[in-house]
Amino acid sequence: MPHRLLLVEDETDIVSPLVQALEHEGYVVDQAASGREALLASTKQQYDVVILDLGLPDVDGLEVCRQLRASEFDGAVLIISARSRELDRVVGLDAGADDYLPKPFGLAELLARLRALLRRTSHHGDQAGSDRRLRVDVDAHRVHVGEREVQLTGKEFGVLAVLAANRDKVVSRSQLMSEVWSEGWYGSTKTLDVTIGRLRQKLEQAAPVERVVTVRGVGFRLES
Ligand code: CA
């Protein structure tokens, strides 16, 4: 099955060459020229990736992103924007975007980002896969796999939240220690190893598709 993308962009100059290029790569591409169109399209069709411009004529792209995340949508969101300051990037990711590509960008760069996102979310497609996926709700301090809640201690949750926020990237031991054990850390990371061990056991039972990988001499990485 080809991957289906939704391109949300109001600048027609950008849209047509981009759609052509993406279709040439084998993607099925739908278009939306406004935020409302995008949200409507996402209720009618499943998308693997939504490529989302921020400057839209009606609903701001960030708001579109938040609404997508609040809905049933479980694909990836790639923001493309001329607002390229670090702050905008952070706000975009906080709104639930998976990646942020500043404009102007080259086609090769966009295609590489898409492939990376699709690798990460490739198990979204089948229901069994998405049921086993881990969802970390930082605000509610809860972790779910499908409908089931995973019971974690405070430290286990803290470690998992940091790893999940940096999914597929290595998080150093010192970063984990300082973010989760900010106080009372006297240089020993043994407590971190114990916590990781327990976390692994719980994840193994609840979410067998998720793994906490040890990166020797550096830290840990959460991957599917
Ligand atoms: Ca725009």
Ranges where pLDDT stays below 50 over 5 or more residues in a row are: 123-130
Distance between the termini: 21 Å
Order of helices and strands: EHEHEHEHEHHEEEHEHHEE
Strand order of the largest sheet: 2-1-3-4-5
What's the CATH class of the largest domain, please?
Alpha Beta
3D shape = elongated
Count of distinct strands:
11
User: Superfamily at the CATH H level of the largest domain?
Assistant: Response regulator
Ligand species: calcium ion
Q: Specify the biggest β-sheet.
A: 5 strands, parallel
Q: Please, how many domains? A: 2
How much strand content do the residues show? 15-25%
By CATH, the architecture of the largest domain is named 3-Layer(aba) Sandwich
Number of DSSP helical runs: 9
Instruction: Please state the structural category.
Output: alpha/beta
Please compute the radius of gyration using only Cα atoms: 19 Å
The average pLDDT value, as a whole number, equals 87
Give a short synopsis of this structure.
Helix content is 44%, strand content 21%. It contains nine helices and eleven strands.
